[in-house]
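Why do we care about 3D structure at all? Because function follows from shape, and shape follows, mostly, from sequence. That is the central idea of this module. The next example makes it concrete: a single protein chain, its amino acid sequence, and then its structure expressed as tokens.
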Amino acid sequence: MITTSVDVLVIGGGATGAAALYDLARRGLRALLVDQLDFTTGTSGRYHGLLHSGGRYAGHDLETAQECIVENQILRRIAPFAVEDTGGLFVATPVDPADFPARWLDGCARAGIPAEPLTPTQARAEEPALTPHITAVYRVPDASVDSFDLIHGLVEAARSYGSDAWIYQRVVALLREGDAVIGATLEDTRTGERRTVHAACIINATGPWAGVVAGLAGLDVKILFSRGAMIAMNTRWVNTIVNRLRPADDGDILVPVGTVCVLGTTSVTTDRPDDYRIEPWEVTKILAEADVVVPGIRHGRALRAWAGVRPLYEPPEVTRGEVEGRAVKRTFSVIDHAERDGVRGLVTVTGGKLTTCRLMAEKAVDVACAQLGVRTPCSTADEVLPIPAAASRRYHRLDHRLHRLEHGELPGALICECELVTRPQLEAAIAAYGEQPVALDDLRRDLRLGMGPCQAGFCGVRAAGILQSARKLSAEQAVRALGAFVDERFRGVRPLLWGHQLRQLYLDELIYRRILGLDALLESTPATPAAVAAATEEVSRG
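And the structure:
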């Protein structure tokens, strides 16, 4: 078994784990981050894209509101490549509580969140799609943030300091000697190969999985799981983030992200860290509530729905009775297991928001450094991150991409017509993974491949052929890669089967399940997929 030694092992490739890796590297420690899948496949990649001003928490959770406004400004400064400064509006309508704006404004003032009053006429001049029935509206410094770009930036910066990150490495055991955790056993989720990593300290930044990972050391961390559903509309109905000015509830936010508009979210208590179901009532509720502030949006074309699981945590000493869902604070906790459980070498960080990932990492690394006797302070708020390679090859503005395409700056065959992704871009993205495994869904996160109106109806098979050629996959491997990608795309479309979306799904199914016979191929012998693999490669060349 291969053995590696590092100062600190970080488990979890989301925003907090990546920020912790970067923080450790800047403090001069040799750190390694591992994740059971690719970066951002968990909660950090399954959210609505909002960089919080703290306004959503000003009325009921002052601590979280204060954390958000401070970290909002820091992330804008250190990761400008990942942030679109959309601004935010909090809009009250006649159906919202009339006394809430005054309480909310008081909370904003106490948290230090600037809230500029606008007239309904001013608000509708900026966002014509807003309802004319506005009773109050305020501007706050919300923004949208690309978690994929942010995490790539943090990881690449950490690597420049000598640390590293490995994907598709699942932690199957924590190594414990007496009252100390000294390392972990990893299993490659693609090959089954196992290796050991020895570390003086481990940071558990696995979000909803934090309790599972702590359990591998025989420790009890109770995480409350809150599932939230979101819907992506096929155009940007608004260019400013729009929040309902009311107590937090289901379906009270619209976030323009890239080429789409995300509507969300629900809050459903669940008992699983990977519960990604979307129930019909959630879709109906989100669309109906969005329609109150943007009339007509519920009749627009919804591209897909997805869900993420929020890891909520309150220390046992402050929990009073049964608390769940929106009643649990959205601030974060850092558990020093040496102090709480008498077990050195393990620190758990959980809860919080993507907006506060840098602060969460700082506090967790502070505890890890205290265990290691390292006194170097955090400096992650002081320096602008270099633009990651992933960000440099992604262009969310379609008019920007189209201009580059038409003027010869993006030469090569067009693979994804919806998001204007070319073959050279796809090949470069695959090559950037080096020797690490790569799936079509990973390329989706890097390039927005298949995230446009057709939801991979036409580009999936082409991309599979290119991936097969670049990685020299067998025919069976190529078909399975395509099958996994198509299944994930179809899963997000199924909750939205009406109108144009229903017609698009039937077309996609005709292509993949009838013409290519993908379901049958996945169940057949390798000989039959070879013919389809050859066809996919020929399609990709065209």
